[in-house]
Amino acid sequence: MATEMLILFAAVFAINLLPAFGPPTWSVIVFFGLTSNLPLPVLVVTAALASSSGRFLLAHGFRLLAGRVSDKTKRSLAAARAAFERQRHHGLMALVFFAVSPLPSAQQFAAVGLAGVRILPFILAFFAGRLVSYSFYAITAKIADRYTSLGDVFRESLTSPWGIAIQLVLLAGLVAMVKIDWTRLFGPAPEHAEEHAKEEEGKGEG
């Protein structure tokens, strides 16, 4: 059983490290539900821990990437983060969305990392949501015997037109997030307010 747990954890962890176009985690849950001897609670908790760990590192990777962008982009992302944090109900809605959303979560965690928003609350919401969804997939795996192999499941998920379209739209949204000047929309983040005021003053004198 320990070997199966390690294989499951490694597979789910690797998939959730991918920023886009990875096979869906549910396909791994179905496969292990059909072929392994793992008890349902072990299967679900192991997969949820692995997916949450992968998304946590993915978000941190994009946070490191945000440190390499231009100063203007850094100030813009900081403005977006400050605006998000000022609206507490937005944060609660985002946490609920992370818990129950059926959409691919890779780009969502990439956005969280880029914006510099606290990652842990989103990870906890994601973990809680995956405990529920993975339980559903594991329980219903017994009726999924129409899939002849894990390769068939992956192939269908990767070549689905709707799946590809959703991934492309989310990637476009991620690019737009970096390109938009959020400072103009929300004003500067508190840590950049003085710097922004000096820049505006300089423009006025010019």
The helix-and-strand class reads mainly alpha
Total number of beta strands: 0
Element string (H = helix, E = strand):
HHHHHHHHHHH
Question: Sheet with the most strands?
Answer: none
- The coarse silhouette is elongated
Low-confidence spans: pLDDT under 50, at least 5 residues? none
- Percentage of residues in DSSP E strands: under 5%
Overall mean pLDDT stands at 75
Q: Give the termini separation.
A: 71 Å
Structure description:
It comes from Aurantiacibacter gilvus. The chain crosses the membrane at residues 43-66, 91-113, 119-139, 160-180. Keywords: Membrane, Transmembrane, Transmembrane helix. This is DedA family protein. The protein is mainly alpha-helical. It has one domain (2-205). The protein is 78% helix and 0% strand. The chain has eleven helices and no strands. The protein has helices at residues 2-17, 25-35, 40-66, 71-86, 88-100, 106-115, 120-139, 150-159, 161-179, 182-186, 193-205. α2 runs antiparallel to α3, α5 (88-100) runs parallel beside α7 and α6 runs parallel beside α9 (161-179). The mean pLDDT is 75.
Notable traits:
single chain; 206 residues; mainly alpha; elongated; DedA family protein
Question: Can you summarize this structure?
Answer:
The chain has helices spanning 2-17, 25-35, 40-66, 71-86, 88-100, 106-115, 120-139, 150-159, 161-179, 182-186, 193-205. It has 206 residues and is mainly alpha-helical. It is elongated and about 60 Å long.
